[in-house]
Amino acid sequence: MSSVLKTYNLTKSYKNTNVVNKLNMSIEKGDIYGFIGKDGAGKTTTIKMITGLVKPTRGQINLLGDINRNKQVENFKRIGAIIEYPGSYGNLSAEENLKIHKKLMGIKDKSSIKETLKMVGLEDVGRKPVRKFSLGMKQRLGIARVLLHKPEFIILDEPTNGLDPVGIKEIREIILELNSKREITFLISSNSLSEVEEMVNKVGIMRKGNLLEEISYDEIQKKNLTGGKASA
Ligand SMILES: Nc1ncnc2c1ncn2[C@@H]1O[C@H](COP(=O)(O)OP(=O)(O)OP(=O)(O)O)[C@@H](O)[C@H]1O
Ligand SMILES: [Mg+2]
């Protein structure tokens, strides 16, 4: 198994408070890793450090096999992230949004926008402006945009937040398909284990900046952390 992400005592302090405290997390190729914690636990801050948006106060990050920060800038091209909310142009259609993104990011690849829309179940939205999309549809468009970069590792910050059970199921199916068919590794943060338990194979539990445990899905079931909700 090759390592996609490893953090070593990763720490972020704001005003002498460690909002992320000595985090040692580990994600292997092929994992769908659930990063679980309540509001303010430090999930987004950790994700921002991984993606280079926030500078760690202490500790190290090994991203796609590289611990050297300069080389990691190259590695950022191999990852895709949606942090906090997926933004898009509300007056334009899904297809137009993806076209613009491709142009802005200088993506030369001929990969078809239609095929990408199909991957996320938006092939039938036609010319409907994105402002008329449901939250789940907007999340899926965000995933489509990230897919245009052909990433090996996708980070989604609370993709199920605010979705109803149907929307959660749709996102789950897309993630599982991308994981099995395109071998994309995922890091998915969530406030609640029950929202992601059916898609993840490993979870890290955050509380007040600390990673309390990191356990495989098999162990979760054994420990019955979800009060028996997870079916065998
Ligand atoms: N730029 C900043 N300056 C000061 N404090 C910050 C900053 N960014 C985050 N924090 C604090 O760090 C802590 C962790 O925040 P973070 O956004 O990482 O949590 P989270 O787990 O993503 O929460 P949520 O589930 O609400 O998104 C919070 O107490 C927050 O107030
Ligand atoms: Mg957050």
Automatic annotation (TrEMBL):
Keywords: ATP-binding, Nucleotide-binding, Transport. The keyword Calcium does not apply. It holds the Pfam family ABC_tran. InterPro entries: AAA+_ATPase, ABC_transporter-like_ATP-bd, ABC_transporter-like_CS. Residues 5-232 form the ABC transporter domain. GO terms for molecular function: ATP binding. SMART domains: AAA. PANTHER family: ABC TRANSPORTER, ATP-BINDING PROTEIN. Belongs to the ABC transporter superfamily. This is ATP-binding cassette domain-containing protein. It comes from Clostridium simiarum.
